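Q: What residues go here?
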């Protein structure tokens, strides 16, 4: 049987630091761009840019605080029900999350504990597996929050700035910086979560580094970027195309509701989670039940290909003047090339590189996952 390496290494600690840097840099470039729009008296663009930052921050704070409360009320982690499991009293935790700093408390906790384990003094041999596994559980919670933030803030931010560049025919250096940082944050969030998730689960093989990780990253980057470019052409056709995007979000939300996801411990948080899943499904496939996903992925990427193919044709037919425009030809080529490459990498990854056992085990699930060794209840999902 495949033996999993649960060691939280120095490299993993450094990657966590890198993830924090990307997160902060992405937020700062977005806020800087929002301020620039105000200076240039583009108040609507400033409000939209800042609004996506606020949306991502708000949702991640809600889930982060809810998970802290779950941990505090978990008899396996906190038998007394009073001692803060995060290193912060309940009142201070609430204030930090209200100020938007909840995710930084998780970074602080993980980096502090990880630094002590991997850089200063390791635990006793008998405790090594449990301590390192706990670190990966913390890393998975953090990476899940970053995944939510990436799709609620970085992805729509990238779409917004691309649309603005198409709408006005040019873009500032600050806009390009914002788009670059958003792209890096999206790519990092997807791969980091995928690897942390499979490391933290006992019953699945970890995601190998090297070629499998690269191919998975290319599959996600190509499919998501081509979809974003396709949506930008729709918005170029008419700003009211945002209604079509809202319908796609609603369909994804309804689908996750019909699947009866059980990600959260309260009804209100579960509804919010399904809305977030619907938003993510607008841009990429998301497995929310852990079952065999071949059929649902086939249907999803058939519709994905249909949208990417029809959108440039619609723009060319309804706006004939763009048919010879450089931007239209370039974006159409990127959409076509990205779609083909993305689907090619998808097939290559799941046929030859996906770390799945020969007995056709199901994919990792989002539902309440109880780890046998620690009794810890945690919530998992798979992008």
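A:
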């Amino acid at each position: 049987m495949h033996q999993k390496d649960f060691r939280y290494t120095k490299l993993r600690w450094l990657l966590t630091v890198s993830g924090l840097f990307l997160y902060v840099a992405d937020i700062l470039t977005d806020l800087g761009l929002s301020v620039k729009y105000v200076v240039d008296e583009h108040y609507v663009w400033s409000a939209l840019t800042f609004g996506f930052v606020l949306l991502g921050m708000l949702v991640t704070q809600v889930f982060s605080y809810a998970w802290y409360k779950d941990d505090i009320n978990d008899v396996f982690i906190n038998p007394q029900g009073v001692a803060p499991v995060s290193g912060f009293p309940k009142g201070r935790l609430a204030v930090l999350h209200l100020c938007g700093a909840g995710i930084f408390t998780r970074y602080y906790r993980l980096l502090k504990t990880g630094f002590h384990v991997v850089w200063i003094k390791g635990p006793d041999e008998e405790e090594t597996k449990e301590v390192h596994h706990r670190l990966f559980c913390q890393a998975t919670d953090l990476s899940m929050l970053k995944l939510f933030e990436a799709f609620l803030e970085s992805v729509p931010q990238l779409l917004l700035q691309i649309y603005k560049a198409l709408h006005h025919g040019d873009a500032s250096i600050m806009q390009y910086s914002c788009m670059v940082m958003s792209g890096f944050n999206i790519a990092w969030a997807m791969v980091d979560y995928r690897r942390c998730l499979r490391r933290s689960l006992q019953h699945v093989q970890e995601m190998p580094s090297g070629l499998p990780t690269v191919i998975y990253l290319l599959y996600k980057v190509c499919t998501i970027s081509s979809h974003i470019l396709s949506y930008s052409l729709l918005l170029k056709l008419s700003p009211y195309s945002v209604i079509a995007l809202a319908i796609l979000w609603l369909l994804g939300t309804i689908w996750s509701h019909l699947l009866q996801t059980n990600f959260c411990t309260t009804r209100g948080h579960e509804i919010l989670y399904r809305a977030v899943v619907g938003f993510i499904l607008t841009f990429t496939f998301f497995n929310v039940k852990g079952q065999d996903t071949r059929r649902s992925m086939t249907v999803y990427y058939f519709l994905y290909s249909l949208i990417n193919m029809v959108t440039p044709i619609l723009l060319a037919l309804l706006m004939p003047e763009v048919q010879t425009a450089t931007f239209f030809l370039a974006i159409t080529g990127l959409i076509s090339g990205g779609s083909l490459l993305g689907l090619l990498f998808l097939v290559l990854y799941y046929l030859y590189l996906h770390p799945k056992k020969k007995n056709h085990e199901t994919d990792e699930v989002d539902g309440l996952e109880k780890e046998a060794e620690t009794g810890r209840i945690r919530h998992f999902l798979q992008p």
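A: Context that may help when evaluating the design: The longest strand covers residues 368-370. The chain has a mean pLDDT of 83.
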